[in-house]
Every structure is written in structure tokens, then in C-alpha cells.
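Q: Got a minute? One more chain.
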Amino acid sequence: MTLAVIQMASQADIATNLATATRLLEQAAVAGAKLAVLPENFAAMGRSDLARVGRDEAEGVGPILPWLARTASELGLWLVGGTLPLPPDGQPQGKVCACSLLIDDKGQRVARYDKLHLFDAEVSDAQGRYRESDSYAAGDRIVVADTPVGRLGMTVCYDLRFPDLYTALRLAGAELISAPSAFTRVTGRAHWEILIRARAIETQCYMLAAAQGGEHPGGRLTHGHSAIVDFWGQVVAERDEGEVALSAERDVAAQQAARERMPLSRHRRFSAPRMASGTLE
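A: Always. Here it is, folded:
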């Protein structure tokens, strides 16, 4: 039941990023990981041609999707492919989504989650203003999928600030939650650890928080501090900056016992967002 998160400082060159991710995932596999999570924008950080990158991937001429399938199969790993730009399924035109894919150890796509909450905000660092909605379309559904290491709920970065999403994932059976991220250095210093620990505590899930950590094109600085947080809110693995493959064991019996001793789901008195076939209403 070994889990892994990958931290990178991705640049604009896709081939270089994929080579780095391969090396780190190989380390995770050697450590015995069955599931590994890559960070947000692991393959294409800071590029201005996201729509073209996404169209190429959707049309089968891009390098990222074949790499995900091949790497998962060769290493025998289930992978959460951080995020990559992809048009909505069946809609090749228009904006791409910040898409997180779950790939099984045979290289097959198991689930797709499109980031629900887009980061349109002003922060006090050098870049100041971020508007993801200029480049991305928002998703419209929650995603929970079965894996060999537990039932996985999928989220991305800015989603961490919206606890109702995590409540909905727990009520849908999540035992682990992936959170590939690229928090700014300013917001990360203020809120990153608080948020990932809070989401773990309130859902009684393991949080797999794979982050970007370093400097990127245009001088953007990300916070790093990738971590695996257990169901009790304890940080069981962490790294501040730079490239790393972190791993930790999931203790299934201890997690189940904690949920039985403190049955939060049964005690809940307010409803989470309603769902119809996974779509938020």
C-alpha cells in the first residue's frame, strides 16, 4: 500500500520535463509505490500555447499522453498525471481544461478529472495577478475511482480552498485524495500546509499533495513542500523545494479504526453539494 508524490520545478520544454518525471517515477517504483501523483503542469509549465498543446494531445500527435501510458505500463505504476491541457472529451475546439488523468499499471485511462475551481486572483508576489480562466475552461463534475491502494478522489491545486468539494468526495467513498498543485510562493507560505492538513482531517483521507517547487519561466516561484498527509492530519512525508519522489505507506486498519472511533460522516448535519452522475448541481 505504498503511495508516492512527485515534486518538480517544471520548465517550458516538454521533453525535458518528461525525462525528469521518468527519473523520479523510477525512484518511486523502486521504493515500492503502487500509485504515484505528479504535480500540476508537470509537462508544460509556463507555456503560452496551451491550446495548441492540448489539441495536439487530443489528436494523438502530442508526446504527453503516450508518455503517461508507456511509463505507467513499464514501471507497473498507477499514475495521477498531475495536470495537462486537454480539450473536453468530444469537444476539440475552444478552451482546454486543466485535466488530471488516472492511468492504470497497464497504461489505460481509468478516470479524468477537469479542475473545477480556476485560480483568478491577485496575490502580493511579483506576478501579482493570475487568471486561469483566460486559458482554461472549468470542469463540472467530481471524480472518485477505485485503485489498488484505495478509492481515490481527484482534485487540483486551488480546489483545496473549497472544502465542500472534499466533503462530496468523502461521501462518494474516497479514502485517498490527490491534489497536484503549483501554489505560488506567497500563498503557499501562508496556507499550503494548513489546507492540506485540514482537508485530510475533515475527510479522514490520505492527502497526496504533489507540488511544483522552484523557479519557472517568467520568474514565477512556486512553494513546493510536497507532502503525504495521513487521515489524522499528520505529515508523514514532505520536501520543501527541488525534485524528489516521496513515498509513504497507507495504514488501512488504522484509517478504518479512526473513522469508526470518530464517525464524521454519520454525524454530519449539513448536506454536501448534490450530484447527478458525478455532476455538480
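A: Residues 185-203 form the longest helix (19 residues).
Q: Perfect, thanks.
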